[in-house]
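WARN retry 2 of 3 for item q-0093 after timeout on previous attempt; input resubmitted unchanged.
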Amino acid sequence: MTKDFRSWIFLFILALIWGSSFILMKRGMYDELGQSIFSDSQVGALRMAIAGLVMLPFGIWSLRRITHWKQVFYLLVVGTCGNFFPAFLFTFAETKLSSGLAGMLNSFTPFFTLIIGFLVFKQRVQLKQVLGLFIAFAGICILVGILNNAPLEISMLHVGAILLATLMYGTSLNTIKYKLAEFKSLEIASLAFTFLAIPSWITTWNLDTLSVFKTNKHAYEALFYISILSVFGTCLALLIFNQIIKLKSPMFASSVTYMIPIVAVILGVFLNQETFHISQFLGMIVIVGGVYLVNSRQVKK
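OK item q-0093 returned
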């Protein structure tokens, strides 16, 4: 199996995992009647705390790989910008935005990845990459119904939260590729979460999260969904994500954000019996075409 083929396989697997994350976030916050269980902050804290606990043994073992304080700094950048703060920003945003719109806004990650790579890491930008980004973004607009005048609930504060998260994702992506190349995928993920484990559990405690189990009968069911989100949508996903960066590039890895809305739409059709329109299929084709254009025959650095 070639490196390119493995990269595309990993990309589709990651899209499947993260495409379901928006639903898991909602299930962690609300019951079937739409009543609140955990707050958005509590879901974010629990997600990070559980992920930190799962990755702690691997992180302790990987501490021997650290030889300089700068490596600690870059690992903290990956942990905070790539995981900790976005976990809170996305759950906050989903209190007011639909999952479809949240998925669409998440697709700004490749834009920020490209911009940061160019401005900070002096990476060359090709015209076809920029063109491919806009084509893929247009496909997402079609997919979520922007061009069909679908009703959207928009709060600029919550939109800004996702845009800030995507800026952080772009920072983390480039840091992994250009500052942590000597580390393996498991080492990066485990060390990043190990450094965040104690702050995450302190945050969980300070948010009075444990009291929810005494007052809400749906708390354990919500915890089940949050645990799935933590283990698969955070730990496993980050391992795959880091591996994609190692195999290809930050731009290729960030392209997963274009695939996520496709998965979200398909899940909506099968799980919630939502209507599937021909325009959505067109949107999917446009997205895949844009992603392919962005990543075809890139100049290697």
